[in-house]
Amino acid sequence: MPELPEVETVKRTLEGKITGLSIKAVEIFLPKIIKTPGPEELATRLPGKKIKKLERKGKYLLIYLADNLVLVIHLRMTGRLIYSPPDAPDIPHTHVIFHLDNGDQLRYADLRQFGQVSLVKVDDLAGLPGLCGLGYDPFDPHFTRELFRKELKNKRAMLKPLLLDQGFVAGLGNIYADEVLFRARLHPQRQSHTLTPREASRLYQAIREVLEEAIANRGTSIRDYVDGEGREGNYQNLLRVHHREGDPCLKCGTPVIRVRLGGRSTYYCPHCQKS
To answer: Which residues are known catalytic residues?
Structure first.
């Protein structure tokens, strides 16, 4: 699933290409992708709307339009949003095409069809299901070290499932939760309220560092992810533990372990991340 670094990379690769353009027409080939206000109304309301800016909140991409509207896109597991000239080869599993007034297209493709596209008023954005329950974005200025320490103390949960909780911190998924815990030298089953202030600070710093490093490398392409230009990321080549079961730890040489936590595969080094 595209996580914060992947969605941020899609945003950055698209904003220089589509900001200032207008949507000329919309083709919808899979109506269930459109969550609100419904496929027919969305296709009627979008033409003529100018794209003003792009933002990201957690794993959501927000495309702000004229007339106080926002196009909200969640890529879920296999969604792709790719800027293409009209004569570019067809992208498999394309479900929505946004035709732009410069003649090019923004194509939404999704192999597993779990993605979501919504069109809402800016004033209604905070109440949109999914968005309304998000916790702090790791790069939000209000997400301070002190706040993070306090929130950890108030929770009684294993660290790995807690980091995956979008209501706690928005944007982390399975890949980066593993990488963050390895960098912070914390066991994935450690209880959050037992962390010392120094360990909590280390975890806070690891979240920021891993995400910044992943963004700098344009995200992680293990299966389906590509950026807004159709290019794969590079961070999969820098992963320390995720997807490396049985491989030697890059720090100590101990074989990386994979366990199941909350139904998700979790990778860690039993020497560097002692329980």
So the answer is: 2-3, 59, 264
Structural domains of the chain sorted by starting position, each given as residue range(s) with its CATH number in brackets: 4-127 (3.20.190.10), 145-268 (1.10.8.50)
Is the overall model pTM greater than 0.70, yes or no? yes
Q: What is the pLDDT of residues 3-42, one digit of tens each?
A: 999 999 999 999 999 999 999 999 999 999 999 999 999 9
Taking only the tens place, the pLDDT of each residue in 220-269 is 999 889 999 999 999 999 999 999 999 999 999 999 999 999 889 999 99
3-class DSSP string for the chain: CCCHHHHHHHHHHHHHHHCCCEEEEEEECCHHHEEECCHHHHHHHCCCCEEEEEEEECCEEEEEECCCEEEEEECCCCEEEEEECCCCCCCCCEEEEEEECCCCEEEEEECCCCCEEEEEEHHHHHHCCCCCCCCECCCCCCCCHHHHHHHHHHCCCEHHHHHHCCCCECCCCHHHHHHHHHHHCCCCCCEHHHCCHHHHHHHHHHHHHHHHHHHHCCCCCCCCCCCCCCCCCCHHHHCCCCCCCCCECCCCCCECEEEEECCEEEEECCCCCCC
